[in-house]
């Protein structure tokens, strides 16, 4: 499998992450719920995970790192805990539904929301945010990188605007945490929301918020914390304020090790490799006839390439990439409706290729080759006489050459289409795959020679194009209900 869906989740994890999760499952108790070794070990691991996140994102206090199940939960906590009915929020058209849907819900309660429009390349100019500020503006909320195009947002510029006007600045770092430098102090970020299972290369079910000093968030959930049991309200102090109930200690142990692995390896090294793979793929597909690539590739960006092939539904293209090439990608709308509207892909969706630390150049090259073959196949069936119109010629060609060592490459090349396209289309038209069809043709003519010729059955099979004698005898019995030797012995024409 070639896994190119890292923007959804990373499958390949550092081995040390898996080991940390397994060890945690065998040893950790419940953090803050006991004085035994297991509970104390859980408390230590979780604190070290907070410290690792604080170092990675440049937050001054580990206690202001609050863990969640993912960035969606983190963003819900931040938005519902900071924004009220009378407030105004500025956001962008690049946002994921993790931002959009909470904002739509808040709008129903009276919150005002302004959307910074994206240009045809999917970029936004954050300088325009300054002109969108109103008397009741409370916050700027934006992603660091589009999960559809990979385009970056200038979070430093947006943060400067928020700082000058005394606004909260909430950043969704789902696509950049783990491969980009995110500095809360430098970029004036009030709340940073992250997920553990993408660029951070940690387990699913992990994520969190990093909360700057002076920012107080109303709890979204209330319940047990292991401390201040007799309070009627959720405790005020972080992290307990936002961490009701038992934490995912096993997952957080893996996330801790993943963040340590990233810092040991180096953010710049990780980003450089992922960027190289993404650009290698982009350079290979951008000029292919029939391929449309979305986004701006003129500067730094997340390792994502979204495209469409002429004549292909994005979902169908993703299915073929998997079924014919074993390449895993994601197609559709990617939970980014406004971005698709801005790009004009609302109806078609797009096919998204996203690269990660464990991908290779060979995998990028194979993905390029797959797109080129699919584009060639579409062109061959769409320009001039389509393959469907030539199926009579195709079958006649195969029938006249059935004794030869026919291959998919030879026949598809003869008719000017890709191997994968020909294979898929042939099976759809004929009801059997190409190889079986050729074998059936050979079997249709072979029985006469078996009855009338003095040659050995093996020699006859080779003469008719069968190089695999075991396969020949198996198919012969399947078709004629007897073995070739039994047919020769009876000397009777099969029914």
Automatic annotation (TrEMBL):
GO terms for molecular function: DNA-binding transcription factor activity; sequence-specific DNA binding; transaminase activity. Keywords: Aminotransferase, DNA-binding, Transcription, Transcription regulation, Transferase. Pfam families: Aminotran_5, HTH_18. SUPFAM superfamilies: Homeodomain-like (SSF46689), PLP-dependent transferases (SSF53383). InterPro entries: Aminotrans_V_dom (IPR000192), Cys_dSase-rel_unknwn_funct (IPR010969), Homeodomain-like_sf (IPR009057), HTH_AraC (IPR018060), HTH_AraC-typ_CS (IPR018062), PyrdxlP-dep_Trfase (IPR015424), PyrdxlP-dep_Trfase_major (IPR015421), PyrdxlP-dep_Trfase_small (IPR015422). Residues 392-490 form the HTH araC/xylS-type domain. This is Aminotransferase class V-fold PLP-dependent enzyme. It comes from Candidatus Scybalocola faecigallinarum.
């Amino acid at each position: 499998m070639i896994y190119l869906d890292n923007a959804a989740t990373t499958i390949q994890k550092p081995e040390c992450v898996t080991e940390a999760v397994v060890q945690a499952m065998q040893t950790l108790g419940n953090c803050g719920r006991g004085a035994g070794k297991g509970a104390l070990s859980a408390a230590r691991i979780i604190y070290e995970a907070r410290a690792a996140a604080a170092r990675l994102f440049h937050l001054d206090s580990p206690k202001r790192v609050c863990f969640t199940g993912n960035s969606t939960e983190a963003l819900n906590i931040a938005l519902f805990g900071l924004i009220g009915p009378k407030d105004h929020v500025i956001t962008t058209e690049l946002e994921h539904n993790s931002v959009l849907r909470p904002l739509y819900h808040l709008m129903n309660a009276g919150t005002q929301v302004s959307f910074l429009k994206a240009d045809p390349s999917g970029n936004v100019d954050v300088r325009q945010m300054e002109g969108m500020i109103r008397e009741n503006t409370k916050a700027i909320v934006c992603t660091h990188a589009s999960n559809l195009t990979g385009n970056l947002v200038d979070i430093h510029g947006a943060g400067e605007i928020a700082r000058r006007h005394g606004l909260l600045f909430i950043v969704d770092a789902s696509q950049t945490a783990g491969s980009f430098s995110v500095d809360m102090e430098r970029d004036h970020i009030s709340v940073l929301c992250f997920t553990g299972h993408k660029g951070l290369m940690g387990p699913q079910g992990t994520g969190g918020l990093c909360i700057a000093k002076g920012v107080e968030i109303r709890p979204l959930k209330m319940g047990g914390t292991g401390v201040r049991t007799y309070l009627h309200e959720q405790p005020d102090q972080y992290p307990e304020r936002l961490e009701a109930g038992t934490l995912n200690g096993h997952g957080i142990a893996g996330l801790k090790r993943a963040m340590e692995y990233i810092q040991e390896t180096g953010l710049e090294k990780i980003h450089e490799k992922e960027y190289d793979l993404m650009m290698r793929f982009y350079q290979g597909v951008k000029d292919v006839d029939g391929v449309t690539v979305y986004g701006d590739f003129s500067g730094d960006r997340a390792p994502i390439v979204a495209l469409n092939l002429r004549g292909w539904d994005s979902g169908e293209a993703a299915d073929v990439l998997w079924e014919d090439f074993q390449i895993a990608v994601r197609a559709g709308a990617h939970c980014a409706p406004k971005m698709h509207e801005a790009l004009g892909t609302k109806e078609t969706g797009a096919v998204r290729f996203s690269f990660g630390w464990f991908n290779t150049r060979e995998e990028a090259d194979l993905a390029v080759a797959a797109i080129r073959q699919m584009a060639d196949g579409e062109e061959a069936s769409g320009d001039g006489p389509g393959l469907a119109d030539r199926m009579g010629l195709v079958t006649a060609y195969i029938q006249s050459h059935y004794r030869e060592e026919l291959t998919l490459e030879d026949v598809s090349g003869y008719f000017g289409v890709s191997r994968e396209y020909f294979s898929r289309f042939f099976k759809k038209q004929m009801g059997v795959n190409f190889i079986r069809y050729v074998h059936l043709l050979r079997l249709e003519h072979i029985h006469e020679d078996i009855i009338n010729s003095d040659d050995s059955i093996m020699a006859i099979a080779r003469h008719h194009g069968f190089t695999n004698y075991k396969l020949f005898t198996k198919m012969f019995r399947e078709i004629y209900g007897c073995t070739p030797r039994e047919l020769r012995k009876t000397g009777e024409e099969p029914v």
